[in-house]
C-alpha cells in the first residue's frame, strides 16, 4: 500500500505590502523544519499569491493526498466563517481523492493565546 503523502497549508489573509508576508514566511519555514516528511506551504485568501486553490492544486500534482489547512488568523471572522468553507468545498469538488481538513484559527488555540499573553506581559517591562 502506498504511503500517504501529507501537506500542511498555512492560510493567511494577504495584504498589499509585500513585507506583510515576512512573519508568515518565517512561520512556514520554522514549521517545515519540524515536519520533514510533510510539504508545508503558505497560501493567501486575497491580495497576495499564491492563493489557496492554486496551492492545493500544485500539491495534488505533486502526489499529495492529504492536506490540512491551518488558518493563521486570530479569530473566526467572516473570512473563516464564510470564505474558507466555500474554498474548502470547492477544493473537495475539484480534487475528489484528496483528504482535506481545516483546523481552527491559530489565535483561538489555548497554547497560542498563552504564548501571546506571555509576550504581552513581558512587554510591560
Automatic annotation (TrEMBL):
InterPro entries noted in UniProt: CbiX-like, Sirohydro_Cobaltochel/CbiX
Keywords attached to this entry: Lyase, Metal-binding
One example GO MF annotation: metal ion binding
Gene3D superfamilies, A to Z: 3.40.50.1400
Domain of life: Bacteria
Designated name of the protein: CbiX/SirB N-terminal domain-containing protein
Origin organism lineage: Bacteria, Pseudomonadati, Pseudomonadota, Betaproteobacteria, Burkholderiales
Amino acid at each position: 500500500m502506498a504511503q500517504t503523502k501529507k501537506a500542511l497549508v498555512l492560510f493567511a489573509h494577504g495584504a498589499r505590502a509585500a513585507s506583510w508576508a515576512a512573519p508568515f514566511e518565517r512561520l512556514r519555514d520554522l514549521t517545515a523544519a519540524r515536519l520533514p516528511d510533510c510539504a508545508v506551504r503558505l497560501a493567501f485568501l486575497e491580495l497576495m499569491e499564491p492563493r489557496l486553490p492554486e496551492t492545493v492544486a500544485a500539491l495534488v500534482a505533486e502526489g499529495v493526498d492529504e492536506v490540512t489547512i491551518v488558518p493563521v488568523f486570530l479569530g473566526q471572522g467572516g473570512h473563516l466563517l464564510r470564505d474558507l468553507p466555500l474554498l474548502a468545498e470547492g477544493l473537495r469538488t475539484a480534487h475528489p481523492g484528496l483528504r482535506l481538513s481545516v483546523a481552527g484559527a491559530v489565535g483561538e488555540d489555548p497554547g497560542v493565546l498563552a504564548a501571546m499573553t506571555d509576550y504581552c506581559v513581558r512587554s510591560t517591562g
